[in-house]
Specification:
By secondary structure, the protein is of the alpha+beta class. The protein has ten helices and 18 strands. A hairpin with a 2-residue loop joins strand 7 and strand 8. The longest helix has 20 residues. It is globular and about 60 Å long. The protein starts with a strand and ends in an 8-residue tail after the last strand.
Length: 365
Amino acid sequence: MNKIFWIGARKSDIANEKLIFGSITRYGDNCNHNFAFCQNDFTDVYDDFLKITLNELLQKFPDCELLFANELYAYQFGQNVFKHSICVNKVSIIESLNDKIFFRQLINKIADVPPSIIINLYNGTDYDFIRNIFNDQYTDFVLQIKESAGGKGSLLIDDNSSNKKISALSSPVLITPYISNAIPINTHIAISKDDIRIFPPSIQLIYNKLNYCGADFIKYTHLDKCIKKNIIDQCYNVAKKIKKLGAIGIFGIDLLLKENQLYFIECNFRYQGSSFVLNEGLVNNNLPSLFKIRYDCFYNSISHIPFDVYDLNINYSSFRRTLKTQHIELPTPVISKIEHHTPESHLCNGYVGYELFDESIHHLF
């Protein structure tokens, strides 16, 4: 097998991963074949750093293979990078499934999605106009551009919101009533040519109503048994629909649980914030890593992964610490701090690191 380089957010994501030889990451230490954006001294633009570093890497390791956390990057840096890339879907599949509007339309006959509407924003678009669209049934709304992720590109509005913020979003915009007191859930799904596997879900940790800051796999296990079965069954139906498009690999599904009702929100065709936690749990249970499973989805088989892997106990929760969440105190003992950085560095963009716990921290949010 050729040397495989991981291109993703953190070097720590591939710690002790036998499949991976080296990495190009946003956060890292430039050691052991790691090339870290936060350590570079020639550009402040991440995509420029990737372009230059990828070309230098391919000159030094002309037979290496590139495994991207976000498959879209395989298409953005020329033919030479693309032909060295592995585990990549057609760009039409990636962009379609990452599109919140497309995803909800794709599954709305087999799963529940929240009420929503797609509009182009104009100078006259204001809160009252949006509320009237939904016949005054709701007071708070989430506005999302197509590329929004982890809270970025999303705007929560109410009757005190500035109309300037509304009109500043790029069109088209997906508008969804804000579902209060709902439990946000995420799960990973693996699809190969012949098989589908649903992995243990987690409850997402959210601050300021929209911003992702961690995952709690332990808290998810406390949900009612019937609810958990419904989540797995519906995720499996959604996965079958996605498989028919020709999609292969590992991706994430976000959904909301509100009074036993499930609402499917979006698909994330990329490595996710909770992936490293799930990966830790898989390896600790003597199963292949997410990296190996993704590779096998494309080039081998995943029949060796138990069908009921979704029942596996992942006894971890995680917290993403940034400048915006530095003030949050978590009295639970941290079992590890992952890749902590100096937040003052502008290349870190406010990111400090992740903290991993062996008990639930959901009650602290």
